Amino acid sequence: MYVAVKGGERAIENAHAWLAEERRGDPNVPELGVAQIREQMTLAVNRVMAEGSLFDPDLAALAIKQARGDLIEAIFLIRAYRTTLPRFGASRPVETAAMDCDRRISATFKDLPGGQILGPTFDYTHRLLDFKLAAEGDVQPAPERAADPAPLPHVTEFLNREDLIEAAPPCDTPPPDLTRDPLEMPADRALRLQALSRADEGFSLGLAYSTQRGYARNHAFVGELRIGTVAVEMDIPELGFAIEIGEISLTECETVNQFTGSKSEPAKFTRGYGLVFGQSERKAISMALVDRALRWQELGEDYEGAPAQDAEFVLYHADNIQATGFLEHIKLPHYVDFQSELELVRKLRREAGADRTNEAAE
Fold first, then answer.
1. What integer is the mean pLDDT of 302-311?
2. In whole angstroms, what is the distance from residue 61 CA to residue 36 CA?
């Protein structure tokens, strides 16, 4: 595309070699393995899987290693690889009510059937550097969990029994597939949730925070946050029934939001929803808050001009791969464009100087 790039192939090869050297680091330090990244940097792996739209911890760990820890670059690698994979079919919707929960908490009900499960979380740590980790000692094993935990019902079911929360909207038609078709407006909720699920975590967090600071009518409680594994099932036409093809880990968040109602409809709580791959609770909560903010029109609320209420603004700017590509393209050669701009500025300055000379002469 650019002559300078074509003529600089040797420089590019050298840049790649330098990159590989920097990626490896000091050869006297043991090399970081993919298995180590997968097992010990699981939250980074989970983010790459979620925003890369591909559940594969090994490939996500490999992408993180190749990207030198740059998670957006790793997400880009995963998305690019994903496009090369064959598609054999579609799985059934997962049953999150049957989730084998590692973590399950509610900010709305203290006493839940099955109890609050704190799970692996930073919530109760002191945020002080633990220098014992630098010694690389053994970790005390956690207590054993129940071998066959009972299914845990969703908290919102308790509100549903009393008709105190809006019913979950039915999904009668297959949702659009954002990984195969470009995003178009207006976007229904299913498409919005897809986009939010793989949106940049930082962008989602900023929007969610804005809703809590008054830039949308979005006072929310975390009805339930659960993290665990669910079975993935797929219908096999030759067999005539569905079989389990594996398990994936998910984070699900359901928020309970402020009342709504009208002369004909009694006041009820409303919902926000978030679901992402792996343990990504900050992302799931952010997604649920933004989802609720985007529903202002269907719930008959006023548009307040808040960024999180503007579907086009949110969805067209939430994807970090698109944002990165557009932002980083400006560092590519733009010599011809700049020379034309430079000549235009020089011309304007010459004309302005001539005008001032004529005015002085008069």
1. 89
2. 8
Query: Which two structure tokens, joined as six digits, stand for 104?
Result: 């399950």
Number of CB atoms found within 10 A of residue 313's CB: 13
Q: What are all long-range contacts of 335-344, with beta carbons under 8 Å and residues at least 24 apart?
A: 335/4
pLDDT beyond 90 at 243: no
Check: CB of residue 271 under 8 Å from CB of residue 34: no
As beta bridge partners, residue 361 has none
Return the axis-axis angle of helices 189-197 and 281-294, rounded to nearest 10°.
150
pLDDT for position 54: 92
Three-state secondary structure string covering the chain? CCHHHHHCHHHHHHHHHHHHHHHHCCCCCCCCCHHHHHHHCHHHHHHHHHHHCCCCHHHHHHHHHHCCCCHHHHHHHHHHHHCCCCCCCCECCCCHHHCEEEEEECCCCCCCCCCCECCCCCCCCCCCCCHHHHHCCCCCCCCCCCCCCCCCCCCHHHHHHCCCECCCCCCCCCCCCCCCCCCCCCCCHHHHHHHHHCCCHHHHHHHHHHHHCCCCCCCEEEEEEEEEEEEEEEEECCCCEEEEEEEEEEEEEEEEEEEECCCCCCCEEEEEEEEEECCCHHHHHHHHHHHHHHCCCCCCCCCCCCHHHCHHHHHHHCCHHHHHHHHHHHHCCCHHHHHHHHHHHHHHHHHHHHHHHHHHHC
* Rounded CA separation 277/88 (Å): 21
CA distance 258 to 218: 7
- In this model, does residue 7 exceed pLDDT 60? no
Give the model confidence (pLDDT) of 202-226 as tens digits. Answer: 999 999 999 988 888 778 889 899 9
Structure tokens at 81: 């690889």
Could you give the angle at the alpha carbon of 122 between the alpha carbons of 292 and 72, nearest 5°? Answer: 65
Which of these, 225, 230, 178, 205, lies nearest to 47 by C-alpha position?
Answer: 205
